[in-house]
């Protein structure tokens, strides 16, 4: 009795995994994600801005958490935006912090509030210094 | 246990030696001697009919007659699959092996993919963090329990979780247990779904949880604790307990918050056996924090940033006829998570029963592996 049900459930899960990632497909290539961060977010300041140690730490975090979707070189994929764009580099650091922390479910971007603020700032540092290196 | 209590070897050897003349002519009698022989005799009988032979059953292969297949069934497999192959459940075991192998194959298929492991150190409490969209997580969580008046048990929970959407995570669990001196059993399957209605971070973040469980009373996975406790149940024979099938619906309200590196989470649990039993209630509370908030630039395995520590408190709250802490099981459990590689984490939790109705001590472990963007990778394989 159990194995067929068990196999059925696993098959359903496998089929579900094949579903097209609708939310990601809604995002145009190049990433015009919804940046509706509250005005207060723009006031936040990166305590690690411009520091090499934290850029390297941010790179480590990027490889751990972000590269599976955005690519090892942050170049993006078919419908996942590149993070090497001017938009990211020149974005207000506070809004970038807010965006990473909260995500954007409609664009398929998960929120990373599970990371401590310090680690999100390290990620911001890495993203904004990426093209300088 | 179904597969135990086979014909003693001495008797088996007598049977194949041909010293018992009835053995060769009476398949029915032989079939009663051993479940494995029963299966073999049935197959042999079918083969004879197919080729039109009237010759009675031939000798069993030595491996079958001596139960060598049983002997070669490794203790680990017995522990995992809950018994040795034989009567009725041989095909079940094979199906289970097939299922586990399929999952293992998928795991190997994408082992080279960039991955990171989950960072939730709790065993019972849920926080508001969902699987990332299209990420898949595998986990195996063994526990060893030491009940007061019953044999110690080993319980294992295999888990596959998938982020269908950023607001929807689905997971399937397969559970088994082994009780010393009694044997093992497959104890059921669970299918859970978590929905997060509010997407961005709020002061407090709710998640709705719905689970269907098809388990038996032998289940010792302790994924949550609800209702009143029944310590005597732990001492009942596993063969009886596994005959008592339960179909349950479980609902949880999960609330959780992250603040300055800390996670604080609370769950209210309500569970309904879909037969005529009343709603039962339970709770879980937990907190945890990484040992370092910022990461170091260098790769390291034992540095503090790779550890999260905390504690959880969980237990039953009675049922609709008697809500409260009376006659319930309550547990206090420190939790520790160690991310020893980007792709893998280890959790452990010594759990202490703090009421008379609790198992006094359980040691719980879990190993987790998560693959990011798994759904897209799987689809790209077909292109």
Protein model, in words:
The complex is a heterodimer of chains A (133) and B (383). Chain A is mainly alpha-helical. Chain A has a single domain, classed as Cytochrome Bc1 Complex, Chain D, domain 2. Chain A is built from six helices and no strands. Chain A has helices spanning 2-18, 22-25, 52-70, 86-89, 93-102, 117-129. The termini of chain A are far apart. Chain B folds into two domains: 9-93, no CATH class; 115-381, Porin, CATH 2.40.160. In chain B, helix 3 runs antiparallel to helix 4. The longest helix of chain B is centred in the N-terminal third of the chain and has 20 residues, at 90-109. The model of chain B is unreliable at 1-28 and 50-77 (pLDDT under 50).
What would the keywords be for this entry?
heterodimer; A: 133 residues; mainly alpha; Cytochrome Bc1 Complex, Chain D, domain 2; globular; B: 383 residues; alpha+beta; Porin; 2 domains; 12-stranded antiparallel β-barrel; 10 helices; 13 strands; 22% helix
């Amino acid at each position: 009795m159990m194995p067929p049900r068990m196999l059925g459930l696993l098959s359903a899960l496998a089929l579900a995994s094949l579903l097209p990632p609708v939310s990601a497909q809604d995002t145009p290539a190049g990433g015009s994600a919804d940046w509706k961060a509250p005005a207060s977010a723009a006031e936040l300041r990166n305590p690690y801005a411009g520091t090499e140690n934290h850029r390297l730490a941010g790179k480590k975090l990027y490889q751990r958490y972000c590269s599976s979707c955005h690519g090892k070189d942050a170049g993006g994929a078919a419908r996942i935006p590149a993070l090497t764009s001017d938009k990211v580099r020149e974005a207000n650091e506070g809004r970038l912090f807010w965006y990473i922390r909260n995500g954007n479910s409609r664009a398929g971007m998960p929120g990373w509030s599970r990371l401590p603020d310090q680690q999100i700032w390290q990620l911001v540092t890495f993203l904004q210094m990426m093209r300088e290196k | 246990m179904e597969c135990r209590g086979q014909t003693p070897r001495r008797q088996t050897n007598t049977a194949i030696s041909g010293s018992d003349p009835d053995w060769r002519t009476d398949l029915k009698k032989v079939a009663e001697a051993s479940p494995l022989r029963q299966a073999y005799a049935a197959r042999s009988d079918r083969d004879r009919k197919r080729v039109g032979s009237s010759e009675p059953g031939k000798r069993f292969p030595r491996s079958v007659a001596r139960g060598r297949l049983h002997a070669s069934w490794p203790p680990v497999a017995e522990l995992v699959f809950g018994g040795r192959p034989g009567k009725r459940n041989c095909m079940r075991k094979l199906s289970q092996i097939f299922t586990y192998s399929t999952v293992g194959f998928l795991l190997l298929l994408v082992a080279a993919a960039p991955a990171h492991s989950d960072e939730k150190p709790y065993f019972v409490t849920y926080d508001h963090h969902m699987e990332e969209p299209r990420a898949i997580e595998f986990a195996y969580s063994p526990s060893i329990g030491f009940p007061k008046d019953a044999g110690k048990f080993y319980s294992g929970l295999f888990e596959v979780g998938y982020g269908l959407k950023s607001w929807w995570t689905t997971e399937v669990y397969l559970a088994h247990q082994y009780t010393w001196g009694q044997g093992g059993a497959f104890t059921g399957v669970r299918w859970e779904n978590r929905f997060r209605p509010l997407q961005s971070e709020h002061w407090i973040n709710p998640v709705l949880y719905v689970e269907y469980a098809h388990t038996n009373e032998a289940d010792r996975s302790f994924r949550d604790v609800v209702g009143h406790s029944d310590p005597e149940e732990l001492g009942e024979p596993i063969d009886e307990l596994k005959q008592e099938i339960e179909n349950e619906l479980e609902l949880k309200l999960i609330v959780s918050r992250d603040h300055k590196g800390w996670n604080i989470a609370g769950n209210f649990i309500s569970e309904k056996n879909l037969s005529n039993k009343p709603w039962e209630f339970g709770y879980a509370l937990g907190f945890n924090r990484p040992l370092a908030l910022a990461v170091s630039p260098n790769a390291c395995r034992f540095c503090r940033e790779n550890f999260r520590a905390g504690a959880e408190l969980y237990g039953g709250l009675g049922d609709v006829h008697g809500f409260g802490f009376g006659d319930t099981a309550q547990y206090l459990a420190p939790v520790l998570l160690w991310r020893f590689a980007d792709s893998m984490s280890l959790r452990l939790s010594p759990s202490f029963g703090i009421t008379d109705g609790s198992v006094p001590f359980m040691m719980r472990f879990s190993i987790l592996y998560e693959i990011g963007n798994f759904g897209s990778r799987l689809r790209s394989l077909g292109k």
